[in-house]
Amino acid sequence: MRCVALDGTGGPDVLVPGTCSMPEPGHGDLLVRVRACGVCGHDLLARSGALAAGHGAVLGHEIAGEVVAAGSDVEVDLVGRRVALVQRIPCGRCDECAAGLTTLCRQGPGFYGEDVPGGYAEYVLASPRNVVPVPDTIPDAAAAILSCAVGTGWRALRRAGTAPGDVVLVTGAGGGVGVHAVELAKHLGATVVALTGTAAKEKRLLELGADAVLVSPDTRAVRDCVRDLGGRRGADVALELTGGPTFRTALRALGPRGRLVLIGNTEPGTLPLEPGLAILKELTVYGSAHADATDLADVVGLVASGAVMPVPARTWALEDASAAHAAVERREVTGRAVLVP
Ligand SMILES: [Zn+2]
Ligand SMILES: [Zn+2]
């Protein structure tokens, strides 16, 4: 089958089109023909060598496709169905899986692009535990980004107990997770302040429902904006999608009992958490991983009902993965870049 594999790590040109051996569905597996695969910031980190992926790895964990075959003991009849995939395949047997905490499972096949070959290819293996059927009203490119680019924000907003009337800060709002987090927070009845480093993304974020968009603001500008929008003593929730670059600003913009959710980690390293601030304001810091199948099913429902519009920005042919990476790296893409095999 056709695929794009890493020829070492480095710039976009290490993404080299070629061929890979076709995956064979074993017991419990589904064979999925990839119809679209999103290009995540995580893929850029993996390609550049910041993560575990190395020579020969096939990246891509934002996958939608069609189930074309199933292992002999797969009980649910999914062959022929269009599906969106959760990016990690859980084992279904460990204590975490038994407790419904499948994002914490580390005994299953694992994460696409790292533990198992990913979606920069014509076919991937999946499991009934990580696929959710998608109605025909949701196109392939949109379906591909439902789990990572939409479900991640959905899970984070729910982790933070986001409620109507909350003021929600979204950092890195112009990226794939960010644009959808803005939409989802509005859907939950929040007032949304979007932070972006790119002025060109301001208009689109306002169209998606942001109540205010701040371009590379300092802490004071964020606090003033939150106050003007009714957050008297600060924001209720901050979704931290970039990590290092905006952490201090997001933390300082929170009001009493504010909840900060760490999601993105674009510059891996340590963050300056000020204990005095956390103690006196009784702040809560959450980590929130990727969506699980329940989150993904929620998101499929939200999109099918029109409550949220996925924003697959542009599509590229699979063979042009390096061009897609380069465009994302230049921050030209508002929303998600998607590869189509
Ligand atoms: Zn992703
Ligand atoms: Zn498990």
Automatic annotation (TrEMBL):
<dbReference type="InterPro" id="IPR020843">
    <property type="entry name" value="ER"/>
</dbReference>
<keyword id="KW-0862">Zinc</keyword>
<dbReference type="Pfam" id="PF00107">
    <property type="entry name" value="ADH_zinc_N"/>
</dbReference>
<dbReference type="InterPro" id="IPR036291">
    <property type="entry name" value="NAD(P)-bd_dom_sf"/>
</dbReference>
<protein>
    <recommendedName>
        <fullName>alcohol dehydrogenase</fullName>
        <ecNumber>1.1.1.1</ecNumber>
    </recommendedName>
</protein>
<keyword id="KW-0479">Metal-binding</keyword>
<dbReference type="InterPro" id="IPR013149">
    <property type="entry name" value="ADH-like_C"/>
</dbReference>
<dbReference type="InterPro" id="IPR011032">
    <property type="entry name" value="GroES-like_sf"/>
</dbReference>
<dbReference type="Pfam" id="PF08240">
    <property type="entry name" value="ADH_N"/>
</dbReference>
<feature type="domain" description="Enoyl reductase (ER)">
    <location>
        <begin position="10"/>
        <end position="339"/>
    </location>
</feature>
<dbReference type="InterPro" id="IPR013154">
    <property type="entry name" value="ADH-like_N"/>
</dbReference>
<dbReference type="GO" id="GO:0005737">
    <property type="term" value="C:cytoplasm"/>
</dbReference>
<dbReference type="GO" id="GO:0008270">
    <property type="term" value="F:zinc ion binding"/>
</dbReference>
<dbReference type="InterPro" id="IPR002328">
    <property type="entry name" value="ADH_Zn_CS"/>
</dbReference>
<comment type="similarity">
    <text>Belongs to the zinc-containing alcohol dehydrogenase family.</text>
</comment>
<dbReference type="GO" id="GO:0004022">
    <property type="term" value="F:alcohol dehydrogenase (NAD+) activity"/>
</dbReference>
<keyword id="KW-0560">Oxidoreductase</keyword>
